[in-house]
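ESCALATION

Customer reports they have been waiting on this structure for their group meeting. Please prioritize. Original submission:
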Amino acid sequence: MIGNVREWTKDINGPMDGKDAVDPEGPASGENRTSRDGAFTGRNTVCRAAIRNVEPATKRSSIIGVRLIVMR
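Update from on-call: job pushed to the front of the queue and completed.
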């Protein structure tokens, strides 16, 4: 999935609780969201799963999307 589009997350950008947690939670409120992974327009150095981006919650872009999953 790396290299398609950045993935919007539900996380608000800020300090994380539980530094070593598997799925740490961000702050309860804030203006900026976190997107992750690299997009097809990015350089090789930023097109990786560990990359995190700070985005305004109102941002619209052709390189930011969502990933749909099916839970069974």
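Sent to customer with the following note: The mean pLDDT is 76.
Escalation resolved.
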